[in-house]
Amino acid sequence: GGRNVRGEDVSAEDGTPVEITAGANVTAGSGDGGAVTFTSQIAGNVHIKNGQVEVSPVFCVDGDLTYEVGNVEVEGDVEISGTVLAGFSVKAGGDITVGGTVENGVSLTARGDIIVAQAILGEDTQIAAVGSMTARYVQNAHAVVGDDVIIGNYLLNADIRCGGHVTVSDAGGGRSGTIAGGRVLAAGGIDACYVGARSGDKTVIGVDGTPADTVKANQLRVQLKEVDGKVRRLLRTLGITQIDADAMTRLIKATPPSKRASIIAFVKRLQTLLAERATVAAEHEQVQSQIDEQVKASVIEITTEIYGGTEVRFGQRSVAVTVKTPPSAYFFSDEEIHRRALN
């Protein structure tokens, strides 16, 4: 057991046995002493996902990704030993591994993890990973990541959204461990050494829902707005100002028989829209509740210093850091953002 950054006692829990079954391109067998053995049917990379061990085929590029190879789109993993040059795209059904740098204007899309040994550069660079993203540093690029983001040195003017945890480590160097400029939002919290720029340029760090949840919530809000617009137009057509069953009944009775069928059709359409609205509103409430719980559960820890010009967000709430601030943990409780000094 121990204590969390809120000062609350946390109990230790025993681990649970993990059951692994055979997945794609793998067969299971029996070994000595009742052990389960797994045998790959192809040459490739081993992954364990959702309780299954699977092997993905690998598309390898020996050196830089240039016009000699062109854009890459494969079902399995992609391994590039060199740099992905400006303007190229790589799409993989598994992981993407880059031994060098990702230059400006590159698009990387992976249903697994994205691992870059050096830098991810450029305001026109787009990174999308269902799994995690790892890089030495990221400068100006945009990334949407389903799981964790692990950075060896720094994030500079980067736009990062992730469904897991963001870690910016101090691996040595002038900017090491720093988030400076840009926006970093993580559902699972953030760990860094420094946040903000000495120049005072704005830096936004925060906790929000996962990228999938926030996109879904926005889509549902748009749907609600569209349905509400249709309801208002129907009410105007019917000549009533609000949804009132008695008023609609009186309207139908007061309508001449020759026109009653069209009024009844409008009323039925209104009932259909109201049922649709109730369904969309319930789904939006569920997704928003998931986002709210994520915001309450996650913590931002800055272990060395926060510079003025930093904005700290939790969901829709934010606080401005206007002066240099010592090591701090930020968390959300009782509808407010709280700061606690780190010893």
Task: Describe the protein in words.
The structure is a single chain. The chain has 343 residues and is α/β, with parallel strands linked by helices. It has 3 domains: 2-54, no CATH class; 57-210 and 298-341, no CATH class; 212-295, no CATH class. It is 23% helix and 39% strand. It has 3 helices and 30 strands. It has helices at 211-238, 245-254, 257-297, and strands at residues 2-3, 9-10, 21-22, 26-30, 36-40, 45-49, 52-56, 58-61, 72-74, 77-80, 89-92, 96-98, 107-110, 114-116, 119-121, 126-129, 133-139, 142-145, 149-156, 159-162, 166-168, 178-180, 182-186, 190-195, 203-207, 299-306, 310-314, 317-321, 328-333, 336-341. Strands 8, 10, 12, 14, 15, 17, 19, 21, 22, 24, 26, 29 and 30 form a 13-stranded mixed sheet that branches. A 10-stranded mixed sheet has the order 9-11-13-16-18-20-23-25-27-28. Strands 3-7-6 form a 3-stranded mixed sheet, with no helix packed on it. Helix 2 (245-254) runs antiparallel to helix 3 (257-297). The longest helix has 41 residues, at 257-297. The chain is globular and about 80 Å long. The relative contact order is 0.08.
Can you tag this structure with a few keywords?
30 strands, FapA, DUF342 domain-containing protein, globular, 39% strand, ten-stranded mixed β-sheet, 13-stranded mixed β-sheet, 23% helix, 343 residues, FapA_b_solenoid, alpha/beta, 3 domains
Q: Tell me the number of helical segments per DSSP (H or I, 4 or more residues long).
A: 3
- The count of DSSP E runs of length 2 or more, i.e. the number of strands, is 30
Q: Radius of gyration from the CA trace?
A: 26 Å
Report mean pLDDT, rounded to a whole number: 91
The helix content is: 10-25%
